[in-house]
Amino acid sequence: MIRISSLFVLLAFWVVAAKLTADPQILPMPTALAGPLWSELISGELPYHLAMTALRVAWAFSLAMSIGLILGLVMGIFPSIDKWLDPWLVVFLNLPALVLIVLCYLWIGLNGTAAIIAVTLNKIPNVTTIIREGGRALDPNLAAMGQVFAMRRRTYLRHVVLPQIAPFIAAAARSGIAVIWKIVLVVEFLGRSDGIGFQIHLYFQLFDVAMVLVYSLSFIAVMLLVEWLVLQPWERHTRRWRDA
Description:
Layout: H1 2-21, H2 34-43, H3 45-77, H4 79-94, H5 97-108, H6 112-136, H7 140-148, H8 153-191, H9 196-205, H10 209-238, H11 240-243
Helix pairs in contact: 3-4, 3-6, 3-8, 4-6, 5-6, 5-8, 6-8, 8-9, 8-10, 9-10
């Protein structure tokens, strides 16, 4: 209920700002978006472009989380490997997203593969950094317990390592999804012919603020649902053992 109330407060600020500007070409009223939104829904344009962007986000998120999880655990558990890979991590953490996007398009071409690879490469270092801290925080006493009871590797990973690392995975996922979809929009803005970013680019060229807001807010709404219905409940679930 508090979250809904908070969104209504934000909506009230929007209404006040729209009244102060008094120019729908600069900032239209929220109600002015209903017509364009409905038109895009009926035509099928909005669902199609939402689906294309969501697909790219899903692919990039899955790849970044999988690769980042492995690298982070290895670097967190083995200090010698961490020393070798840490300079690489620092370089990629500080490499601008725009540079990677442009290079991927130049090297691979203006296609969907390049777009997904560019987004994935941008996010892997962040996921790796968070998971590495989780690897460093693993309790050595629990590791010793696993050795005493001669746990199988799969059992040890499932019942000892995973519960400890799960909050870090949840944190990486929450921050990851928020960053990835924004980078996906940039990728689509620069070099794709579909997706929310492409549509924003199209209506930017037409100076159509209302349509830019329609496409932007539609995908923000999707990401809010993912956050509230999937990521936050999952994060609470991963932390339940700490509160027990």
